[in-house]
């Protein structure tokens, strides 16, 4: 039976303006938002998070990355395009083609469909803020001589974001690449845009990792705001209802210092003080799973 890896991440609470400079036609840079009930919540796309994963992989193992980003030229380069005798994409050779998939749409010599594509193995959800957005806006201006468009404004939101990743290591061309995804979670940086003006820390403040035979995550949106901190009462309910086996879970980060951690420990969930410690344990469990599978 295949093992599936899931992780739900909640970031620290800070002022976010991850809006890539998109506007409403005026000089206002807007946040992406969704409506839930009577409130609006800011959101960051899965594509923006995937971009940050790509950036991490380029930084730590560029030789294994096909699509690289050149910040000086502000453009992407595909190594596969330089090798006209080979394929543009190669999921065996390149980790990003393996994790994120690709589609190379083209016609053959006789005008037949010769499209090559691969579904991404790594799935990433949209990040949603834990707090409603109440319309906060920051103002700024260009330096030097001012004109009609010198004054600009930016929607900002003091909040934390949560999102989930899903991955079935056996679906990768090289299963050991799953460990690199876990490392990337704690190291991603440039999620969304506007980073020349705003720095927002998108690393985990707390994390829930699940390695399981169950193909459904069950841990999505398990964090919620609880006063000035973050809780996980929904996760505890699912454990008590026996919908989640507590031995499959590793929880780490700031949540370990809350009363929720005591309930998790009493349910025999592995709770770590740090996020990186939780990730290391998950990597060890992944390695053990692979070892047991190859010994059969």
Low-confidence stretches: none
Helix and strand succession? EEEEEHEEHHEEEEEEEEHEEEHEHEH
How much helix is in the residues?
A: 10-25%
Strand content: 25-35%
Number of DSSP helical runs: 7
Structural notes for this entry:
The protein has 296 residues and is of the alpha+beta class. It has one domain (4-70, 122-142, 150-295). It is 24% helix and 29% strand. The protein contains 7 helices and 20 strands. Strands 1, 4, 5, 10, 11, 15, 16, 19 and 20 form a 9-stranded mixed sheet that branches. A 3-stranded mixed sheet has the order 3-13-12, with no helix packed on it. Strands 2-14 form a two-stranded antiparallel ribbon. Helix 4 (177-185) packs antiparallel against helix 7 (275-295). It is flat. The N and C termini lie close together (12 Å). The mean pLDDT is 90. InterPro entries: Cas7/Cst2/DevR_bac, Cas7/Cst2/DevR_sub_I-B/Tneap, CRISPR-assoc_Cas7/Cst2/DevR. This is CRISPR-associated protein DevR.
């Amino acid at each position: 039976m295949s093992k599936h890896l899931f992780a739900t991440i909640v970031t620290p609470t800070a002022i976010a303006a991850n809006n890539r400079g998109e506007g409403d036609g005026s000089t206002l840079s807007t946040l992406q938002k969704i409506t839930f009930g009577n409130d609006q919540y800011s959101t960051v796309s899965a594509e923006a998070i995937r971009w940050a994963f790509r950036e991490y992989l380029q930084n730590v193992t560029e030789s294994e990355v096909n699509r690289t980003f050149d910040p000086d030229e502000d453009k992407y380069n595909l190594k596969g395009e330089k090798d006209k005798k080979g394929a543009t994409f190669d999921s065996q050779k390149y980790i990003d083609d393996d994790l994120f998939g690709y589609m190379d749409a083209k016609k053959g010599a006789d005008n037949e469909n010769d499209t090559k594509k691969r579904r991404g193995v790594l799935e990433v959800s949209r990040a949603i803020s834990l707090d409603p957005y109440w319309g906060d806006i920051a103002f700024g201006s260009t330096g030097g001589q001012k004109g009609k468009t010198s004054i600009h404004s930016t929607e900002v939101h003091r909040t934390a974001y949560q999102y989930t990743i899903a991955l079935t290591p056996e679906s990768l061309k090289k299963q050991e690449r799953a460990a690199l995804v876990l490392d990337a979670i704690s190291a991603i940086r440039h999620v969304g845009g506007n980073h020349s003006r705003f720095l927002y820390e998108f690393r985990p403040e707390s994390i829930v990792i699940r390695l399981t035979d169950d193909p459904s995550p069950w841990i999505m949106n398990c964090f919620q705001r609880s006063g000035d901190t973050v809780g996980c009462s929904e996760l505890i309910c699912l454990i008590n209802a026996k919908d989640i086996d507590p031995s499959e879970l590793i929880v780490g980060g700031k949540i370990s210092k809350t009363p929720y951690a005591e309930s998790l420990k009493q349910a025999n969930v592995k709770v770590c003080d740090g996020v990186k410690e939780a990730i290391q344990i998950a990597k060890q469990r992944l390695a053990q799973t692979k070892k047991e599978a190859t010994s059969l």
